[in-house]
Amino acid sequence: MGFLQIQLTNLLAILVITASSKSSLSATPPNFPIALKPNCTDHCGNISIPYPFGTTEECYQSHDFFVICNQTFDQPKVFFWNSSVEITEIKLDGQLRVLSFIAHDCYNRNGTSASYSGTLLQMPSFLTVNNTANKFTVIGCDTDGFIVGQWLDREYATGCIAMCSAEDDLTEGSCKGLGCCQISIPKQVWQVNLSLTSFHKYHSNVWNFDRCSYAFLVEEIAFSFSPENLTNLRNVENLPVVLDWAIGNGTCVEAQMNASSYACKSVNSKCYKPDNGYGYRCSCLEGYQGNPYLIDGCQDVNECEDPHLNNCIDIKHCVNTIGSFHCHGESLAFKLAAEISLGIIVLLLVAWWLHLGLKRRRQTKMRQMFFLQNGGMLLQEKISRRERSSNTTTIFSELELQNATNNFDNIMIIGKGGFGIVYKGFLPDNRIVAIKKSKEVDPNQIEQFINEVIILSQINHRNVVKLLGCCLETQVPLLVYEFINNGTLFEHIHNKTKACLFSWEMRLKIATETANVLAYLHSAASTPIIHRDVKSANILLDQTLTAKVSDFGASRLVPLDQTQLFTLVHGTWGYLDPEYMQTNQLTEKSDVYSFGAVLVELLTGKKVLSFDRPEEERGLVNLFLSVMKEDRLFEILEENVTREGNKKQLMKVAMVAKSCLHVKGNERPSMKEVATELEGLMLREKHPWVPTGHDEEAKGFLLDGEFSGAINVGEDNSTSIGFDSAKNHVMLLTMGGGR
Ligand SMILES: *[C@@H]1O[C@H](CO)[C@@H](O)[C@H](O)[C@H]1NC(C)=O
Ligand SMILES: *[C@@H]1O[C@H](CO)[C@@H](O)[C@H](O)[C@H]1NC(C)=O
Ligand SMILES: *[C@@H]1O[C@H](CO)[C@@H](O)[C@H](O)[C@H]1NC(C)=O
Ligand SMILES: *[C@@H]1O[C@H](CO)[C@@H](O)[C@H](O)[C@H]1NC(C)=O
Ligand SMILES: *[C@@H]1O[C@H](CO)[C@@H](O)[C@H](O)[C@H]1NC(C)=O
Ligand SMILES: *[C@@H]1O[C@H](CO)[C@@H](O)[C@H](O)[C@H]1NC(C)=O
Ligand SMILES: *[C@@H]1O[C@H](CO)[C@@H](O)[C@H](O)[C@H]1NC(C)=O
Ligand SMILES: *[C@@H]1O[C@H](CO)[C@@H](O)[C@H](O)[C@H]1NC(C)=O
Ligand SMILES: *[C@@H]1O[C@H](CO)[C@@H](O)[C@H](O)[C@H]1NC(C)=O
Ligand SMILES: *[C@@H]1O[C@H](CO)[C@@H](O)[C@H](O)[C@H]1NC(C)=O
Predict the structure, then answer these.
(1) Ligand 8 pocket check: which of 153, 190, 249 to mutate, most ligand atoms within 8 Å of Cβ?
(2) Whole-prediction pTM
(3) Is the dihedral of CA 558, 563, 568, 573 positive or negative?
(4) What is the SS3 assignment for 526?
(5) Which sequence ranges are marked TM in the entry (predicted)?
């Protein structure tokens, strides 16, 4: 009977809609100790400082948690030790709220007069930016804001652009690119720097109402855009940001091996891995509450005191026990009532069950609809057509791919991007593959996915990574690519040891291959294709250093979809066509621009965007164009390149790059012209007898020979298409206020 009573109350609790939301930690003062010793302060003003945090060496768990309580202000303030970052709230369950600065860039009519960018906090690895609570926000009418940080142990950079041309463009509460843009932060991001720049030439006509641009990280609920923020944010010093904290940087198992340093000191506590960030956290077992980091910190909850926590029909019969409670001998009247309710219970259960069944069926139906909506059928059709034409595409079962990736184990992750996650997988036939999985069921991501398949099913080229197959059994299709094992061009250029071995000849060969494949995409394929995200991290290299272009998720078949105005831009910082800022369209010539940036990267060995360089040199393209103007090219070339390259040839390649980087798209050469030119340069180096004075002739010759060669590829099994965003150092996220 006791069982039934519990059932009844549970059921009622469910049906009466669980409105009993848990009260916030800070709302009521805790009735259990939170500091280590009686002599340790557990608050500063009204901000509580729970252990492992503390204000003296005896009081904190490790130096990471050393905070200062500064009483000299009207209202005492808490700071991280040795830092000016103010903490406004510390929660025991792993979050804290800090006040972050606002990067700004303020100008007068003759240009930038004052700008400030910087580091949020020299964050040690125990602090991670909370990925759900915060948004990176950029405000301005001519503003390109970026956030650069660490993502796991790699570099991470993303940003968004806020543009407007008239005050009427701005809408209260709307942050979709007009005057304001916002993007999410992925998990595992720490040590962030914020910065912004402007495209001054577009600025003069908006000067009347926009004098400053801003970029900041902010707790989403604490900021809502208003057109007035273009001016009034200047008076705001900082905005709240939620950080996740954890202990140490090892896993629970590793931490438990050393009992003296293991932080979950309380009996009745347990260790768990945080959703975001390194390290581990502690929590009290169910039925206990308090501070799990203190010996005896977790104390029994008296469930009988809180009607939400016990389900006894009469509170008088509730008996609290350690870690739990029970309802002692409820009276006869209650038993009778319970018995009468039995029928009702059964009825309710049946109703509930029916409801669940209906809901589930509706869900399945919705999933199917969703799949169809997003081109699932089209995908299926394309795949099956591909299968008929060539025997290369396989339909994998979900189980096969689960086995290949050890059930999508995190250690198999080799890359992440705006679109999803890439896993390395081992097939039973010993083939190694890269499996791309959309992160969430976000319509935008599915669309990109299907886009990629559709695009790839139309390309047949040896310099494109090969799509081996896909899996349609999952709600979100999984794509399987050949695994390209020699890393990205980005690594070969920027990893010091690899760069030493990366000869100029090889660099030029890879550039030529890439130019050729882009030319092929723009002209040789049945419908022209714009890659839209050409960058060194998207050019993979195989064992023989043959270029394999990857990541067609953002690609589009021309003509461009006009409805895309002011929505997602897929280019990556430093590679993005500046003309996009005016037209909001990416064209073939945008690929030419991005390719130009890659060419400069190959020539100079420098990153396209680097915060280690002085402010005016952060963008490699600008640096390159200014040295070209001053005829100082050879000062910025990579050592190897200068040593091995023929000066005249290097100069010519630099001229090609310069022409690709022309601000006006229609003054840039076509990709085909670029490819031809590079091939000519490569050939002339090998065969100096090729006449140099008759470029036109040489071009014609090359066009006949090489280009038709490019079309031929793909008949045999050397054809390849594919992907492995694997080792993107600079992680690409989609930008703009698309969400
Ligand atoms: C607290 O501080 C007082 C005075 O400084 C000292 O006498 C006492 O022993 C301290 N108590 C503990 C538990 O450390
Ligand atoms: C602390 O007090 C100030 C001023 O009374 C108030 O604005 C703030 O919200 C309080 N903070 C917390 C965590 O209760
Ligand atoms: C408290 O803040 C004031 C003003 O910023 C500063 O001068 C002082 O050094 C701080 N005190 C401590 C103990 O950090
Ligand atoms: C603490 O701050 C002082 C002064 O800014 C600096 O000299 C010192 O290196 C800092 N210590 C650490 C561990 O960051
Ligand atoms: C901008 O121009 C005005 C007058 O033309 C001049 O007084 C002022 O110093 C200039 N400001 C800067 C930052 O160059
Ligand atoms: C952030 O800026 C600091 C100081 O300028 C620099 O040391 C650090 O490397 C930067 N971090 C990243 C990820 O660029
Ligand atoms: C943005 O502007 C609105 C309207 O003036 C103002 O209420 C709000 O506080 C501003 N936001 C910030 C963060 O200052
Ligand atoms: C983890 O901590 C150890 C010891 O403090 C340190 O050597 C190691 O570099 C840390 N790892 C990361 C990823 O921070
Ligand atoms: C365990 O942790 C303590 C305190 O951090 C440290 O001194 C000791 O060296 C560690 N022992 C081992 C075996 O790692
Ligand atoms: C981010 O913060 C929210 C509270 O603001 C919390 O519920 C959530 O769990 C945090 N996310 C992670 C990944 O820790």
Answers:
(1) 249
(2) 0.56
(3) positive
(4) coil
(5) 340-358
**Domain 571-721, CATH homologous superfamily name and number:** Transferase(Phosphotransferase) domain 1 (1.10.510.10)
- Non-local CB neighbours of 429 within 8 Å, separated by 6+ positions: none
Task: Output the six-digit token pair for 176.
Answer: 């979709």
Q: Write the DSSP assignment of 559-582 as a string of letters.
A: SP-GGGTTS-B---TTTS-TTHHH
DSSP per-residue string spanning 223-250: ----TTHHHHGGG--EEEEEEEE-BSSS
Q: 665: burial class by Cβ within 10 Å (0-12, 13-18, 19+)? A: buried
CA-nearest residue, atom 7 of ligand 3: 72
Which residue in 502, 464, 539, 467 sits closest to 643, CA to CA? 502
What is the token pair recorded at 623? 């640096």
Q: Is the CB of 108 under 6 A from ligand 5?
A: yes
Give just the sign of the alpha carbon dihedral 287, 289, 292, 297. Answer: negative
**Dihedral over Cα of 597, 602, 606, 607: its sign:** positive
Residue 222 CA, closest ligand 7 atom number = 13
Q: Which two tokens stand for residue 420?
A: 């999803």
How many Å lie between the centroid of ligand 10 and the Cα of residue 134? 10
In the chain, the amino acid numbered 194 is L
Segment 352-404, tens digit of pLDDT: 887 887 777 776 676 566 555 555 666 666 666 655 555 456 778 888 888 89
Q: Domain residues of the chain, as ranges? A: 31-90, 95-245, 376-415+421-482, 571-721
Ligand 3 contact via 69 beta carbon (within 6 Å): no
The answer to whether 437 is annotated as binding is yes
**210 classed as catalytic:** no
Task: Report which of 88, 115, 116, 79 is spatially closest to residue 101, judged by C-alpha positions.
Answer: 116
Write the CATH number of the domain with boundaries 376-415+421-482.
3.30.200.20
